[in-house]
Design a protein that fits this description.
Layout (H helix, E strand, L loop, with lengths): L30 E2 L2 E6 L9 E5 L2 E7 L5 E5 L13 E3 L2 E3 L6 E3 L4 E3 L14 E2 L1 E4 L2 E5 L18 E11 L3 H5 L5 H6 L4 E2 L9 E2 L3 E9 L5 E9 L3 E8 L2 E13 L2 E11 L5 H28 L12 H12 L2 E2 L3 H4 L1
Antiparallel strand pairs: 1-21, 2-12, 3-4, 4-5, 5-10, 6-7, 7-8, 8-9, 11-12, 13-20, 14-16, 15-16, 16-17, 17-18, 18-19, 19-20
Bound molecules: FE2/S2 (inorganic) cluster (FES) and fe (ii) ion (FE2).
Amino acid sequence: MADDQRGPGLANPPRRHISHDIPAEGQDGLFTQSWFPICLSSAATSTNVRGFEFLDGRVIVVRDEHGKAQVLSAYCPHMGADLAAGHMIDGQIRCVFHHWKYSADGRCRSTAIGDPAPEAAKLFRFPTQERWGLVWAYNGETPHYDLPDMPFPDGELVFKVRVLPDLPVDPWIICANTPDMQHIKTLHGINIEGEDQHDAVEWTDHSLKYKFTGIYSNGDKLTNEIGIFGPTLYWQSSQFGDKWFGFMSPFGLPRPSVSSLYMVVCARKDMGTAEEIDAWLEFVIDLETKVVSEDVHNMLTMKFKPGVLTRSDQTLARYLRMMKTFPRAHPSAEFIK
Ligand code: FES
Ligand SMILES: [Fe+2]
């Protein structure tokens, strides 16, 4: 300090490197073992093969003979043709190059010229499910958690899905918004009734969830339960007067440092006529679009670096610790790249 002309306490503090401890998606060839949205349900058909970027590689989405969506590696094990350029014929994927055929479980069933189907010619089959108008794939062989439910069964709800532009950050960085109680007040201008409920946050090894009553800048008062799962899904259940809505933002991962973004809103089927429900969901979309646009604006320009955290960041700090040790793997690597 003797040589520092700025006096005590004014020297540059040592750089902090906390962020380096949280692996980025794709670091060392690994990705978080999560459920990721791949595409809209409407993209999965039994007549076409559709290709999508996923985990810095390529996958296809088809619908099998039972109508179930399947996510599989995109490159033909014979000579590497892109199966998205092929065709669905009688429930099988036919490669455009030499016409080998694959069933939707990923096994080669026949070649076109009479050679027996090679046992080793297999596509990587991702655990796949459809929820809320989206097709989801799990990065792994066996999922270690399931997607959450709304407070009501899906069959009692009406869903609306929107596709938003990609964001230049990993999904887990967007998810860091949810445990970040400071930004709810500052960035979004939502006052939280009472003290921050850090001790009331419900944690699992893959999720967090908490309740708060928010007073919005226009005076609206919403009782919210919000959470993240994965870290690829923002989840919200809200009571607005006597009306309820659900809102979710699923985050896909086409490649490192890019999140594909969806918006899902839902309402109870018994809340009114189809027109009333539609008008309510449009209102919810407008409400949430404003909130999301504030986050998006920040995500487009920030250089994520968790550094100096304070007392009100304690839930955020725990989330960041969870992300340090979140399971990471890439079992489909040799198939999708
Ligand atoms: S590359 Fe697909 S059948 Fe040959
Ligand atoms: Fe936010």
